[in-house]
Amino acid sequence: MPTEQSISLTNLAAGNMVAEIKNKVLLDTLNGEKTSRYPVWVMRQAGRVLSEYREVRAKAGSFINLVKNPELACEVTIQPVDIFDVDAAIIFSDILVVPEAMGFPYIMEESKGPVFPHTIKNISDVEQLEDKIDITDRLHYVLQAISLTRKELNGRVPLIGFAGAPLTILTYLIEGKGSKTFSEARKLLYTQPDLCHKALEKITHVTIQYLKAQVNAGAQVVQLFDSWAGIFPAEQYNRFGVPYLKRIGDELQNSVPVIMFPKGAWMSLKEFSGIQAKAIGIDWNTGIAEARNQLGAGKVIQGNLDPCTLYANLHDIRQQTLKMLGSFAGNRHIANLGHGVYPDVHRDHLKCFVDTVKEFNI
Amino acid sequence: MPTEQSISLTNLAAGNMVAEIKNKVLLDTLNGEKTSRYPVWVMRQAGRVLSEYREVRAKAGSFINLVKNPELACEVTIQPVDIFDVDAAIIFSDILVVPEAMGFPYIMEESKGPVFPHTIKNISDVEQLEDKIDITDRLHYVLQAISLTRKELNGRVPLIGFAGAPLTILTYLIEGKGSKTFSEARKLLYTQPDLCHKALEKITHVTIQYLKAQVNAGAQVVQLFDSWAGIFPAEQYNRFGVPYLKRIGDELQNSVPVIMFPKGAWMSLKEFSGIQAKAIGIDWNTGIAEARNQLGAGKVIQGNLDPCTLYANLHDIRQQTLKMLGSFAGNRHIANLGHGVYPDVHRDHLKCFVDTVKEFNI
């Protein structure tokens, strides 16, 4: 059982100091156990949709400060569990802490999003990507936030850790910022494939260490966000995206359940049927039946209500959610949106989505 | 045969004053005739990829000035026919001339793209959308550019006219600019569907008049660009996108061949099998076999090489192009990219793509 004393990382290994999990619907679903309802959580549930979050964010002074402050990160991680009664917490953090730990720091521009002042253009940039790093030192703040949250959750719901998929991280490092076409990244994959593979090797190595450290710190599930998977043609994604996710899956298969979210990569879904991941996330443009067909019965599918549905009135949100739940057809599913919740959605609308899922019996 | 005297719009009707077309491979393919090779043209072939274009663009002073100057628009339209020997010209213009003609002008910000100072938020905005307009007056400059280009082409290749699809135009009018999530537009479709249908009705009405006027001025094929089709969930696209394209197809079915490009809307491709359009464009994330399966044998499929392929070396471009041509399997196809060519592609690379298609025998 947890104590009030501060908890070090090492003695949290395998969660042996923390409470038994009370809400097991997510873990049971991931582990192939029968459940009476679908689990539900929401990408970006810890975020601007909550005024409580915005208050903590203001206190922190900046997004990056919030990410780097374990106590505040823990606080905002637990807010949606308190407020929405979701079936999982996901640690508040950012996928870009990994490239930062590898020597490529980013700044957050309020209207533009993350910007990397130093990007990857050539082999000497790739050589500067540090992969022989001590994760528990450089990313201590994330691991500490996980330990603290795990303790504070006290077994109410499982805690999800996460990282960006290697190709999405590389894409950020090449583009330096968001993009409409991502043509810089796609150009480099075409023109300098060896350089890209070298960078992906390094990012994958660090990501595996990082996810293992998260598990060690208390994460009970991990998710890989391949946010930009869908910008690549299938052939390119199958060469530069899938193999690195496969390797991560192999390395974590005897650890905690892994969820992979290759957003938009519907053309490559079949590739994921053979990957060591318990669940695959799909976006709202991917049909449930089609995804099931590609992935087979053995995979849990996570998603995929269009986040914009939450702008509709409560009646319509409920109807659309029920429609999605009906399409799950009693198979293995985790209810979620098809992407992160948009910050200007009314919290009652998000609550309606969560409640509708929780009231629905399989 | 064309004369040197200036040609008015009316006497160009049905092209009766212009030369017989010499290169018929595009029209034959669209009309279901057997051809010995696949036709090829390139979206944005008249554009920044050519230094000759950039010179004319500099002379015009701005993108919008260039669009509004029939002589200069004609000049840049013909450049890629001269330089790349493509099988069609597409009139140099912009899809946003339609909302401008309807009373919503836009400005072009060099780094940001088009911006609408006045956007659609509510019903009074929709009421301000003017649909009882004289196209031949308000869009005279496009029609004149078409007439002039048709004359100058002198039958070398057919001339393609175009317009934006109603939903893409509405999306621009709601967002006011490009967007990563297009959440404003998607929100309005969810929250105020009637308002959106009312706006789409108006835009569709004007678009039909506009395309008919283009045909009257000399366009021998027209393409509808639904650039943002892929941002909508299939159900929403099938309600707000497809029916208006269907109506446009019905109105033009006894006119010239129509190409529709619902970019990214792979989930809705089946809907297009029943639409009066000779050809459907697909982007590079849509598989050729899958598209053929959805559309049936009767449709011409246009596309779909990843524009980033053109960043690779000439050998790889050739191999990738041959691979695409092989996947066409002798069926009815128009070779093109899966999106507009990127401006920083080397022209020799684009030429390599075009040449590879033209040397390939079906």
Tell me the CATH topology of chain A: TIM Barrel
First CA to last CA of chain A: what distance? 33 Å
Quaternary status: homodimer
The biggest beta sheet of chain A reads: 7 strands, parallel
Q: Briefly note the structural class of the backbone of chain A.
A: alpha/beta
Q: Would you kindly provide a brief summary of this structure?
A:
The structure is a homodimer of 362-residue chains. The first copy, chain A, is α/β, with parallel strands linked by helices and 362 residues long.
Element layout with pairings:
Two copies of one chain form a homodimer.
Chain A: H1 25-30, H2 51-60, H3 63-68, H4 70-84, E1 89-90, H5 97-101, E2 107-109, E3 113-115, H6 123-128, H7 135-138, H8 140-153, E4 159-164, H9 166-175, H10 183-191, H11 193-217, E5 221-226, H12 234-240, H13 242-252, E6 258-262, H14 269-272, E7 279-281, H15 288-295, E8 300-305, H16 314-328, E9 333-337, H17 347-358
Parallel strand pairs in A: 1-4, 4-5, 5-6, 6-7, 7-8, 8-9
Antiparallel strand pairs in A: 2-3
